[in-house]
Amino acid sequence: MEEFLGENPHKRLIKELVEGKIFAVQLQSLLKQPNESVLADELIRKIWGSFTQAITELNSLGNSDNSLTQSQIEEVDQPNSGSGLKKKKKEKQDRRGCYKRRKTSGSWMRESETMNDGCAWRKYGQKKILNSKYPRCYYRCTHKYDQECRATKQVQIIQENPIKMYHTTYFGNHTCNSTKIPKHTYNSQFNHAMVKHSDSTVLKEEEEEEEESKGQSDNASSIVDSNLWQDFMPSSPSAHDSTLTANYNAAYYEGVISSHDMEDLAKFGEIEAIEFC
DNA sequence: TACATTTGACCACC
DNA sequence: GGTGGTCAAATGTA
After folding, report:
1. Closest-lying nucleotide for A127 based on CA to C1'
2. What is the mean pLDDT of residues A228-241?
3. φ, ψ for residue A50 (rounded to 5)?
4. Taking the CB of residue A266, how many other CB atoms lie within 10 A of it?
5. Domain limits of chain A?
6. Among A232, A211, A225, A196, which residue's Cα sits nearest to residue A117?
7. Mean pLDDT (whole number) for A3-32
8. Lowest-pLDDT range, A2-16, A53-67, A118-132?
9. Torsion of CA A121, A71, A252, A198, to 10 degrees
10. Domain A103-255 carries which CATH code?
11. Would you say the C-beta of A270 is within 7 Å of strand C?
12. Nucleotide closest to A89 measured between CA and C1'
């Protein structure tokens, strides 16, 4: 990466992103082979480095309005950074309503017959939504405070007859290590979930894959969930090769690279495994 | 007692 | 000004 320092920023940026893609492709093929976790780990570090460098370049290219502050960059780089201390009791002042309305980007959705997705969620709100028959429920990760996990989701019933269907929108990535919960809490109905990435295409109907994977595990949803939150995270670089995983991972990175950026990137090769909206 | 849920209030965003 | 997202006190539950 350092060898690009003499070139113009635009070229450096492109090279970083292309490198990142190459590493990702290598990682993808590597993950198809067993016992390659060390190499995979190395590749993930390279990918991480490429994207970090690219973000830095982008930041230096952009005007002041578009540039991230250093703290914002660090926040992206180190989602687990911080004190790690419990924040159960914040400042004395009433902070109700003090929030930034989130963007819809960086989110993905699924529709299923159950709310259960194998993660530990805690409900923190419910709201009647305009023009909607059913209220929307707001959930955050149970480990928001003890592990500073920022994952949240919104669940809304979209139909009740003939069967109850839930529309779930996920925001942010889990940074906690406690996404695994006892088997009995899973619901096989999760296997019928439809996963959508943000507001774009339906990505995967899991049913067929579930049938195939039943021999490997009697709890396929746990695999989905561990893929969902952990596999592409730098802190736990093990991954499974599945389209679903790739799409979830794309959702994770979506928070770092915008769709506009991806359009530019597309000039330099097809993005196959990762789908951005 | 600890943790989860409910619910009204607050306020940023459109 | 209306709507939606979040907070936190009150309440419920194991």
Report:
1. C4
2. 35
3. -60, -45
4. 11
5. 1-78, 103-255
6. A225
7. 66
8. A53-67
9. 80
10. 2.20.25.80
11. no
12. C8
